[in-house]
Amino acid sequence: MRTLPLSAAVAALLLVVTGCSSASSPDGSGTPDPDATVTVGLVLEPSDLDIRTTAGIALDQVLIDNVYQGLVGRTQDNEIRDVLAASHTVSDDGLTYTFTLHDGVTFHDGAAMTADDVVWSLSQVKDDASLANHADLAAVSTITAPAADTVVLTLSRPDSSLLFDLTGRAGLVLQQSATNDLSTTANGTGPFELTSWRQGDNLQLGRFDDYWGTPAKVAGVTFRYVTDPSAAINASISGDVDVQTAVDATLSSQLDGVDGITLEKGRTTDKYTLAFNNAVAPFTDAKVRKALRLAIDNDALIAAVGGSAVDQGGPIPELDPGYEDLTSVDAYDPDEAKSLLAEAGHDGDLSLTLEYPNVYPTAIGDVLTTQLKAVGVTLTVQQVDFSTWLDDVYVNKDFELSMVNHAETHDFSNWANPDYYWGYDSAPVQQLYAESIAATDPQVADEKLAEAAKIVSDDAPAEWLYTATTLTAIHDGVTGFPTSSTTTRLDLADLATTE
Amino acid sequence: MTRFVVGRLLLFVGGLAVASVLIFATLRLLPGDVAQAIAGTTGSPEQVAALRQQLGLDRPVVVQYLDWAGGLVRLDLGESLVTGTPVIDEVLDKLAVTLPLAALSLVFGLLIGIPLGVTSALRRGRASGVVLGTGAQLLAAVPVVWAGMLLIGVFAVTLRLLPTQGFPADGWSEPGRALRSLVLPALTIGIVEGAVLLRFTRSAALGALDQDYVRTAAANGMTRSRALVKHGLPNVMLSVVSILGLQVAGLIVSAVVIEQLFTLPGLGRMLVTDVGRRDLTKVQGELMTLTTLVLFIGLVIDLVHRRLDPRLREGDR
Description:
The complex is a heterodimer. In chain A, about 25% of the residues lie in helices and about 25% in strands. Chain A is an alpha+beta fold. Chain A folds into three domains: about 30-45 and about 190-260 and about 475-495, D-Maltodextrin-Binding Protein, domain 2, CATH 3.40.190.10; about 70-170, Dipeptide-binding Protein, domain 1 (Alpha-Beta Complex); about 270-470, Roll (Dipeptide-binding Protein, domain 3), CATH 3.10.105. In chain A, strand 14, helix 9 (about 360-375) and strand 15 form a beta-alpha-beta unit. The radius of gyration of chain A is 25 Å and the shape is globular. By secondary structure, chain B is mainly α. Chain B has two domains: about 35-75, no CATH class; about 90-315, MetI-like fold, CATH 1.10.3720.10. Chain B has helices at about 1-25, 35-40, 45-55, 60-75, 85-120, 125-140, 145-160, 175-210, 210-220, 225-260, 265-275, 280-310, 310-315. In chain B, helix 5 runs antiparallel to helix 6 (about 125-140) and helix 11 packs antiparallel against helix 12 (about 280-310). The interface between A and B is large, with 60 and 62 residues.
């Protein structure tokens, strides 16, 4: 081994390290830069881009609104808004939905969007049971285009959730004649085109120049998938990403006092739900279920996960219809918990197992173990990977306690479904839910949901640990980035950045 | 020599065959399947059943294995169960990150381990030698993740010399940028590997220092360090090469961990994700690639070692 080539190699490496300057980031003031590309750090990467078959909000998050659009969409506060429909009307009997389409909408491949594309897209989901969200259109009997700019849906029965369901995948408009591979490409009508996807690393969008609405204010967006929470914080501090979503609250103090970064709080429908297996003992006994709810101190739990959450006393979170504050139902009372357990015949001898996916904080299992121990319940925690959880809990219902984040919005129907994994079967709740769906007056629909939610909370089929508050770290100069409901939607139409 | 090479090649092929059975069988023990993972919590049982049939997961396990193993012989790793893209394409794409990372780590490891190992042997008994020896002992015990976090803290977050994580979105189209993003992760692995190499080089060099030929060279007027470098180093390097095979296997395992920490789109990170999704065809392809790499490097090192060391060839004559 000789000395000269060695030192040359070291020198070359040093050059690589110090010679290249780091990428510039927006400096916080000045005029919007239409040529800029904004880098956004996300956590969960979609496994596949097929919006028709691949489940999961990771796909909705990046593609819906930005690349694919529906007749209607939703704001970050879950209000319904018209998108490809210029307007819509619902008949008084709730059986006819009429959508008037926007003029001049084109797909990314240049073809004009027609009413036939809309009819075909919706019919595809309605007619094919193997497609995602097929059940959302169960009440729809016909989908027609009586005029070039009009699409009419007729229903066999009123469905108060239909319009909101149409803001999801069931309402997306794809091109009938397109032959692109949905798994890796996308041909939508949104302000951004999908330009590339490097699986395992990043997904890039570029502005669609022939967009029918107000054009995007940035040239492109690069989504980077950073799963490690501290890597995400570091990427934010060093400027590797301009925006980081879903910042880990326990680490967020590292961003305090960092110049040029603002930490925004936003509301979500992320419901961290500790479900009991209601179909098996000891959970068939309401006293045991209630005792477990009473034993859990939600405030202490929220503090342990970094404080970025709010107490949720029932199945419906604040952003969803039918919400009312139910936090007083079975609120923390360990003494009451102990006496209920004693009445149920479990005097310090109850041992339970909690199975939950390892993507969620370990602190949850730790805190629950401590809190339940205080009322004489021994908890064994098993953290497994998500596919194992799906198999054990969701499919085979082989569990005692389970914890997952039910992030979907408007998902109260799970409590009215006796076949769902937690096995909660309540006739009054199912009845009220059916009445809510059948209601033609939105206010009545919400009242029925609220009534049902109260019964669910009183029945204690689960403990709602908390609704997460999401933290987004945004660099100075970046504006128009949504901060609420970011796990399910990320509408970047207003995103801008200064030079 | 020919008999040795043929025997070694047969061992290589046999190793691959055994590995393919083990990999296939072990993965079948995992709970859950890809069809359910695709359909998630919103999919209906009908959707899952349709997917399972479409993906061929309802066929007997033996048929699935023979189908896959038959493809391997033709260098066809099959298609991803999730995206339908050819696994070989994905694997090659990720190797473009993992292999340079491993190579750069090895360079760092050798640059750190060998000069310092020789120095520490020469300074045996002196303060600087003791510091080097103890330092290496400590570093070799450091988990690679911890070393990585420390380096990120210093070089990326505080000094901002290097990116904290990630790889250029357009890959190697700008080689300088791509290389920059590999420096910290490679240094992380290199330091820990280098510490192991240092200790090994040190003991091999200490052995060489006690040899007659070094003593004779010193008696002829050479300094001890010069005698060691000129006459002892070939023997030291032989010993280092012999453990390099093991080190490279360790290096690849470290790369899997480090890719997670630095969010590098390499084979290791893809492997972790695909296991989570139960994309078994892809996981099999990735594991077979890694196994082939490790076995192949072992084979090459054995052959090189035999070529370099005349003592090993004695038996052939």
